[in-house]
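Entry 14: structure prediction run for Lipid A biosynthesis N-terminal domain-containing protein. Input pasted below.
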Amino acid sequence: MHDLTNWLHAVFIEQFDAWVLLGFCAQGFFTMRFVVQWIASERAKRSVVPVAFWFFSLGGGSLLFIYAIHRQDPVFIAGQGLGLFIYIRNLWLIGKERLEA
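Run finished. Output tokens:
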């Protein structure tokens, strides 16, 4: 139990700085996209992906991308970089559709 306590302290307390705070904020944005999608689907009684999902994805993904660059994690950088392209493309398509309507 003492080893676990030491590990938790080292990971969550000793390493805590502004970058870790940014990472937690980014993860919060990223999590909110699923909460928004879930609530919209429950209200519609069918699977729905609201525009807010893509904005939370873009916000959280951008912050996580910055965090990943700071941490110099190539897997995390590649994953978030690809995700950003997808989020921007979906928002672009939604905007285009609304302009045409």
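Notes: The chain has a mean pLDDT of 93. Will compare against the previous run tomorrow.
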